[in-house]
C-alpha cells in the first residue's frame, strides 16, 4: 500500500522539470554506457553471424532495418501516450516528451525506409514498391513531418501542445495498419517472423544478433529522448529568462 | 442545427465565389494532365479515374482552411464554442462539415462526369468514379476538419492544413481509386473497396468532429 503510494509519488516528482533534469543527469551517463556496450556487442554479433543461404550477406541489413522499423512505431506510440498525458492528466512534461520524440521518430522512420530500399534493390530488384507495408510506413514518415511542422509553427508551447496531441492521437490509427498490413494484404514485404504464434521462424544464429541490436537501438532511443527532453526544458527556461530580463530592462528604463 | 446548416450553406455559396474557385482548380488540374502525359486517348482512359480522384482531393484540400477561419475572424466561432453546453460542439462541427461539403465539394462531384469525358473514360467508369467520389469526399472533409481546427489559431494555416491532412487522406484515395477501377476492370472487385470506403467515411464522421471539437476548445481559451 505504502509502496504503491511512494511509487506514484516518484512519478509525480518527475513531473517537476528541475527534478527531471536531476534525474536525467543521474541516469544519462549509465544509459549512454549501456547503450554503447549493447550496440557494440550487437554489431560484433552481426558481423559474426553466418550469411543466409539465399540472401547472402545482405541479410545483415536486416539487423539494423528491423530495429529501425520497430522503433519508428514505438516512438509514435510513446508520442501517443504523451498526447494522452497532455490531454487527460495535463502532465507538464508530456508535451515536452511528445515534442522531443517527433524528430527522433522521423529520423528512425527515414532510416528504416532507406535501409529497406538498400536491401530491396538486390533482393526484390527494385528500390521501392507501393505495397501496403511500405506505403503505410511512408505515410507514418509524412505524419511525423506534419507533426513537426505543426509544433514549430506555433511559438506558444501551451497552445501547440494540445493541437499536436490531438493530431498525434488521430494519426495513431496508422500504427495498427502498419502492424497488420502484412497479414491483411498480399504484400511483397514478408510477414512477421520474430513475434508470432508458434515461435520465431528465424534461425537462432540470426535471431540473437537481431534481438541484441533491437535492445541496443531501443536504449539508444531512450537516451536520445531523455537528452532531447532535457534540451527542450532548458530551451524553454532560456526563453522564459529572456522574457523576464526584457521586462525588467523595460521597467528600469521607465523608472530612470 | 438546421439554422446553422442553412447559414453556412448560404455563406459558402455567397462568399467570394469559393465554390467557383474550387471547380476551376479541379478543371485546371484535369486539363493539365493531358499536357503532362501526352494526348494518348487509351492512356488517358486508363488513368482517368485516378486523375479525377487526385484532382478532387487537391480541390477539397484547397477549400479546407475556410472551414473555421471566417467564423473565427468575425467571432461567431467563439459563440458556437460557448454554446457547447446546449449543443454538443462535436455535433456543431459535424453540421459545419456537412454544410461545407455540400457547398464546396458536392459541385466538384457533380462536375466530375463532365471532366471524365475529357479523359475519354467509358460511361461505366465515369459512373463508378462519380459514385466513389460522392461517398469518399465527405471523409476528406471530415479529416480536414481536424486539420482546420488544429491550425485555426495560425495566421497562415492554409498550406499547413494540407500538409498535415494529406497523409491521413491517403487511405481514402487508395480505396476510392481501387473501387473505381474495380467497376471497369474485370478481375478487380468493386464491392469490397467500395464498402471499405463507406466504412472510412462513417469512421471519420465520428472521429473527425470529436477531435476537431477538442482542438477548437483548446484553441479558444
From TrEMBL, chain A:
Keyword tags: Cell inner membrane, Cell membrane, Cytochrome c-type biogenesis, Membrane, Transmembrane, Transmembrane helix, Transport
GO cellular component: plasma membrane
Domain Cytochrome c assembly protein: residue ranges: 21-189
Localization annotation: Cell inner membrane; Membrane
Function recorded in the entry: Required for the export of heme to the periplasm for the biogenesis of c-type cytochromes.
GO biological processes: cytochrome complex assembly
Principal location: membrane
Species this protein is from: Phyllobacterium myrsinacearum
Membrane-related topology note: Multi-pass membrane protein
Protein family per UniProt: Belongs to the CcmC/CycZ/HelC family.
Any GO MF annotation of the entry: heme transmembrane transporter activity
Name used for this protein in its record: Heme exporter protein C
Lineage: Bacteria, Pseudomonadati, Pseudomonadota, Alphaproteobacteria, Hyphomicrobiales
Gene: ccmC
TM ranges: 20-47, 67-89, 101-120, 132-151, 163-182, 206-227
From TrEMBL, chain B:
GO process terms (BP): cytochrome c biosynthetic process; cytochrome complex assembly
CC per GO annotation: plasma membrane
Alphabetized Pfam families for the sequence: CcmB (PF03379)
Stretches that traverse the bilayer: 12-35, 47-68, 89-111, 131-152, 159-184, 190-216
One GO MF term attached to the UniProt entry: heme transmembrane transporter activity
Membrane topology: Multi-pass membrane protein
Subcellular location: Cell inner membrane
Location, primary (coarse class): membrane
Keyword match Lipid metabolism: no
Keyword line: Cell inner membrane, Cell membrane, Cytochrome c-type biogenesis, Membrane, Transmembrane, Transmembrane helix, Transport
Presence of keyword Methyltransferase: no
Functional note: Required for the export of heme to the periplasm for the biogenesis of c-type cytochromes.
Family membership: Belongs to the CcmB/CycW/HelB family.
Stated name of the protein: Heme exporter protein B
Classification lineage: Bacteria, Pseudomonadati, Pseudomonadota, Alphaproteobacteria, Hyphomicrobiales
Amino acid at each position: 500500500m505504502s509502496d504503491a503510494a511512494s511509487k506514484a509519488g516518484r512519478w509525480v516528482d518527475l513531473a517537476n522539470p528541475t527534478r527531471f533534469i536531476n534525474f536525467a543527469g543521474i541516469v544519462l551517463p549509465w544509459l549512454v554506457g549501456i547503450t554503447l556496450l549493447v550496440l557494440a556487442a550487437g554489431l560484433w554479433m552481426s558481423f559474426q553471424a553466418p550469411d543466409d543461404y539465399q540472401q547472402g550477406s545482405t541479410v545483415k541489413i536486416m539487423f539494423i532495418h528491423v530495429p529501425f522499423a520497430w522503433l519508428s512505431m514505438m516512438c509514435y506510440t510513446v508520442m501517443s501516450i504523451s498526447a494522452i498525458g497532455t490531454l487527460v492528466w495535463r502532465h507538464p512534461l508530456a508535451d515536452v516528451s511528445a515534442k522531443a520524440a517527433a524528430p527522433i521518430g522521423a529520423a528512425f522512420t527515414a532510416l528504416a525506409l532507406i535501409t529497406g530500399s538498400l536491401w530491396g534493390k538486390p533482393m526484390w530488384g527494385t528500390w521501392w514498391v507501393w505495397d501496403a507495408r511500405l506505403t503505410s510506413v511512408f505515410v507514418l514518415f509524412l505524419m511525423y513531418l506534419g507533426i513537426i511542422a505543426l509544433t514549430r509553427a506555433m511559438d506558444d508551447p501551451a497552445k501547440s501542445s494540445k493541437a499536436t496531441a490531438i493530431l498525434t492521437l488521430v494519426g495513431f490509427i496508422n500504427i495498427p495498419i502498419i502492424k497488420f498490413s502484412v497479414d491483411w494484404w498480399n504484400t511483397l514485404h514478408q510477414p512477421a517472423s520474430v513475434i508470432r504464434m508458434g515461435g520465431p521462424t528465424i534461425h537462432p544464429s540470426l535471431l540473437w544478433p537481431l534481438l541484441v541490436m533491437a535492445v541496443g537501438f531501443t536504449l539508444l532511443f531512450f537516451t536520445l529522448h531523455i537528452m532531447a527532453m532535457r534540451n527542450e526544458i532548458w530551451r524553454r527556461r532560456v526563453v522564459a529568462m529572456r522574457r523576464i530580463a526584457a521586462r525588467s530592462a523595460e521597467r528600469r528604463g521607465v523608472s530612470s | 442545427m438546421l439554422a446553422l446548416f442553412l447559414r453556412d450553406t448560404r455563406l459558402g455559396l455567397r462568399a467570394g465565389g469559393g465554390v467557383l474557385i474550387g471547380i476551376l482548380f479541379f478543371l485546371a488540374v484535369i486539363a493539365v494532365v493531358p499536357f503532362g502525359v501526352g494526348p494518348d486517348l487509351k492512356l488517358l482512359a486508363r488513368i482517368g479515374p485516378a486523375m479525377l480522384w487526385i484532382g478532387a482531393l487537391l480541390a477539397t484540400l484547397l477549400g479546407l482552411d475556410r472551414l473555421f477561419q471566417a467564423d473565427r475572424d468575425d467571432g461567431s466561432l467563439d459563440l458556437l464554442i460557448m454554446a457547447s453546453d446546449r449543443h454538443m460542439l462535436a455535433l456543431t462541427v459535424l453540421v459545419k462539415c456537412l454544410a461545407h461539403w455540400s457547398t464546396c465539394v458536392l459541385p466538384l462531384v457533380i462536375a466530375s462526369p463532365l471532366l471524365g469525358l475529357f479523359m475519354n473514360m467509358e460511361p461505366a467508369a465515369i459512373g463508378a468514379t462519380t459514385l466513389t467520389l460522392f461517398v469518399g469526399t465527405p471523409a476528406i472533409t471530415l479529416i480536414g476538419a481536424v486539420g482546420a481546427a488544429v491550425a485555426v489559431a495560425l495566421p497562415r494555416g492554409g498550406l499547413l492544413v494540407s500538409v498535415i491532412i494529406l497523409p491521413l487522406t491517403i487511405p481514402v484515395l487508395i480505396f476510392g481509386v481501387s473501387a473505381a477501377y474495380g467497376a471497369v476492370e474485370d478481375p478487380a472487385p468493386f464491392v469490397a473497396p467500395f464498402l471499405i470506403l463507406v466504412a472510412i467515411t462513417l469512421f471519420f464522421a465520428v472521429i473527425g468532429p470529436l477531435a476537431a471539437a477538442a482542438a477548437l476548445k483548446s484553441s479558444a481559451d
